[in-house]
Structure formats: C-alpha cells, structure tokens
Amino acid sequence: MGTVIVVIIVVVLVCVVGFAVALAGRGRRRAKEALGLSPVLAKDVPREWAGAHSPEARMHRRLASAAKSLSGQPMGDAVEIEKRVAVEQQILQLDEQLVAAATVPGPRKVELLAELEPLVAAVESSVADSASGRVELDHLKQTQAELDAGEPDK
Questions:
Q1: Are 36 and 45 in contact (CB under 8 A)?
Q2: Residue 76: which pLDDT band, with cuts at 50, 70 and 90?
Q3: pTM for the whole thing?
C-alpha cells in the first residue's frame, strides 16, 4: 500500500512539473509575440517597444504585424516566393534601421524616423497587395532602392 502512495505522489509531482514547464514556455512565446520577434524582424529590439507609444515602437509593431500577415499567406509559385522573400528582407532591413535610429539622439532621430515611416507604409502596402495577389516586383525594387539609399547612421 505504501508503494502505491509513493507512485501516486511521484506521478502527481511529474504532472505538476510538466504543467509548470508548459506554462513557462507559453509565457515565453507570448512575450516574444508581444515584442513581435520573428525570423523576419530585428533581433535586438528593445523590450519596451512591446507597449510603448513612441514612433519607432509603433512602426516596429506595424512591421511585426506585416510580417505575421505575410507568414500567414500561402507560399505560391517561384515568382510569389521571390516576392515574399523580397518583402521579408525589406521588413528586416526596416526593423534594423528602426533599432539603429532609436539610438540616435536629438532632432536627427526625428528626421530618420520621418524618413522610415513612408517605407514602413510601402512595405505594409506590399504585404496587403501580396495577400490579394497584386504585388509588382517593380514596386518592391523601388522600395528596396529607397531602403538602400536611406540607411540611417549607426
């Protein structure tokens, strides 16, 4: 009888530990989602951006939303995959530029963020067009050229 009680206690303890580990993993996933972390986004995004109302935090969350929307779309053929990869690269570049711009002090930061805002809007537009199947490679190339020309000082 004593052995049965020990076995039951061990099983209950294993279940409790397993439940705690599952909750911790779920909490980490939710924290990453709140920050918008994904393979498409910059890795060094400040934690404060998850709920901040600064222009850079809002643009980051817009990019995270665009990345999530893009990842939810079907892959399609080779041309669609090429377009998707181009948009993902633009999202990553913009997010990295936002992180870099956030560290710049003074009025230069405001200028950099003002330059990045239309590019964020263009990427959002590309993702929306991609969802409807209308992305034009020329538009992506134009946005990429603007990104390449406007790299903020790091």
A1: yes
A2: confident
A3: 0.62
